[in-house]
Every structure is written in structure tokens, then in C-alpha cells.
Amino acid sequence: MAASPTLRRRRLARQLLRLREEAGLTAKQAAAEAKKRAPEKSWFEAKITRIETRKILRVRDADLQVLLDVYGVTDTDEREAYRKLAREAAKSGWWFGYRDILGAGTYIDLETEASRIRTYQVQHLPGLLQTEGYARAMIRAGGVTDEEEVDRRVEVRMMRQHILARADAPRLWAIVDETAFRKLPSEVAADQIRHLLAVQRPSLRIQVLPDAVGPHAGMDGSFVILDFPDDPSAVYAEQTGGSGLLVEDPEQITLYETVLDHVQAAALSVEDSRAWIQHQLDQLD
After folding, report:
1. What end-to-end distance do the CA atoms of the chain give, in Å?
2. How does DSSP assign 141-181, residue by residue?
3. What global pTM score does this model have?
4. Is residue 63 included in any domain, yes or no?
5. CA distance 147 to 162
6. Which tens digit of pLDDT belongs to each residue from 78-88?
7. Is the domain of 68 the same as that of 109?
8. Where is the DUF5753 domain (predicted)?
9. How many domains does the chain have?
10. If pLDDT is split at 50, 70 and 90, which confidence band does 14 have?
11. How does pLDDT run across 158-175, given as a tens digit for each residue?
């Protein structure tokens, strides 16, 4: 799969902000300097801010070069590196053909390049661990009745799982509430549980959070923490209606990591979780 344009946009915006701050300029001052160098262009404080906050998704090469001039970036190789980053950020993600059902596709785009994925799920199993039958049942349960749309949603969910087969597959650590197992559709339960047992390996671990633990830190809902080799982490918090909130504030991410630590400590160990999952399969068989 192609690289993540969303991750590239995050990186470009962060680096342009850093360059401006290192140049000792406010956004208003940077816009004024850019206007001097390119008077034919529209340069305002809001434009600088929109670039740095990724409200402008595609930074034009001409605008980028003006900003590099303003920020004093003169080295040819360094300038070309920024231009290449901007070109990559302007590309479409692999999921673009499914944008009618995925919307912005931000989470899936970031998932493509994550080096570690840590997730806590309450009502359903993580998408990366779902069988086709389970995914189809969940999508229908979510109110999708058009079979063509169901097929396309299942297709994209299965495509996401390709990252787990890569040589540089991300490490995946999933903590799943017992609630999700109780809600397994009977017609797909056995196949889905067998799949959970089969996919586990040192880089892919599953823990079960049993009902017996009572109230716990993760009761506010499901979320995923995405870690990257050279970029700040991000959190995707699920919301009602299937939408999600992308969290990038470092302090908020730390809070989610703390919640995950508490949930992980309350859950069964990896070994005990595997035995617990096997017991569910034995009961079905």
C-alpha cells in the first residue's frame, strides 16, 4: 500500500511551524514577508495558520518555496526534501476509491504507516482482527442495508488487514472487553474465535478484559493509539454513530496512554486471555 498522505501533511505542517518559530516570526510577520516576495499572491496571517494546522491540505509548490525563502532555508537539498514532502502530502491514499463510505479516511490513512497499534475495544472486535463473516454481520447490524455497500465496506476492511502481512508489520496489542465476545453473532462466532487464536504471535497480542473486574478506567469507550517511527503519536477515539475523533494533543494522548495502562493491568494476561478465548471456542464446539 502507498504511504500515508495524512502523515506527510502532519509532518509538513509541523516542520513549517518549526521553521517559522526558529526564524523568530509570528504568523502575521511571516505573511507580510511572503507578500513582499510574492506580491501577486494572497498572503495573510490566516493562510499561514491554515497551512500549519492542515486546514489547507495541499500546499502549492510556489507557496512552499516562498515560505522557505522567508524562513531562510537556502540549502538546495533541504529545500528539495521539503518539496518532495509536499508532493507526497498532496497524493491520495490507497483508500481514495472508497471515500464515499469512508469520508476523509484519516484514521485508515494513518494506520497504514503506524509502527505500533494499541487498541481497547468494548462492543466489537478490532477491525484488523475481524473475519469477513464477522465484519459483514457487524456492518449490517450498523444499519447498512444495501448489499453492494456492505460488500464494499467489507472489502476495505479486509484490505486494511494487509498491513499485518507486511515484512514491517506494525506491532498490534489489542485489549478487548468481554462484552464484545458476548455479542459475537452465533453464525460466525466459531470462525472468528479460531481466527483470534490463529493470528496471535509475539508482535500481535490480545488481552481480554473480563466482566469480573467491575468498574474500570476504560468505561468511557473504545480508542486506538497509533505510534509512528518518526512522527508524534495520535489517538483515534470512537464516537456514537461510527464516527471518530482524532486526538493529537500530547497531553491528551498521555491521558489515553494512562487509561490504556490501567485497562491492560486489569485485563487477563496474554496467556490467560488465550486460554479464556480457547474456552469460548470449546463451548461452541
Report:
1. 38
2. HTT---HHHHHHHHHHHHHHGGGGGSTTPPEEEEEEEHHHH
3. 0.85
4. yes
5. 23
6. 999 999 999 98
7. no
8. 106-279
9. 2
10. very high
11. 999 999 999 999 999 999
